[in-house]
Amino acid sequence: MNGDAILMQSLRHYGVNPITRKRLWRIFLALLAIFMGFTSLDARAEQPTEDQVRAAFIYNFAKYVEWPESALRDEDKSIVIGVLTEDDFDTVLSESIWGKTLKGKKVLVKHFDTAEDAVAHCHILYIDSSASGYMPAILDALGKAPILTISNVDRFTAKGGMIGFVREGANIRFEINEHAAERVGLKISSQLLKLARTVR
To answer: What is the CATH number of the domain that holds 160?
Structure first.
């Protein structure tokens, strides 16, 4: 089932008519909350950390992306999310997605020291802001590999990345560079594009 179908099924399940961007965004956030185990809006409940929110976004982004057959084969048993970071975000991400699947495959998180190490071993690569000084070299190393790139680096999509986190006050939103994804053979769902703050 592709990303559009997944989102439409979720919308029907919650009885929402998907006719506005605002409604789509509310549902997307609701799905994130369910993914993270937050079923109550009780203000006394423990709130997720920024790392946990980003981890939930990354997992859900992948639902709305289609990889070329050569990159995500039927015989592949797992989808690998690579992480380039100097902190412990890979641990947070691993804990957040433990036991979950994507497109019928197990999801694994792997830490990489360099983009060269990651290029042949992952389907998604999260590049932390701690690696911002190496961004041109990282994107050059990835070349045209069919890897979904995600980052919290400032102006990531303007630099050639695919999905970039941005802050709006206390909220986390995202921008998409659709051209960068298409260049390597990835197709991003129109429903996810509608939720992005900006699309290049």
So the answer is: 3.40.50
| Joined tokens for residue 25 | 């965004």
d(CA 155, CA 158): 5
Q: Give the separation between CA 125 and CA 145, rounded to whole angstroms.
A: 11
d(CA 125, CA 148): 6
Phi/psi of residue 16, nearest 5 degrees: -110, 135
User: Using CA atoms, how far apart are residues 137 and 63, in angstroms rounded to an integer?
Assistant: 28
DSSP state of 150: E
Average pLDDT of adjacent 10-residue blocks, the chain of 200 residues: 47 47 59 46 62 92 93 83 91 91 92 93 94 92 96 95 92 94 96 90
Query: What is the tally of structural domains in the chain?
Result: 1
**Residue 104 counted as domain residue:** yes
**What is the span of the domain harbouring residue 92?**
49-195
Does 131 reside within a domain?
yes
pTM here? 0.79
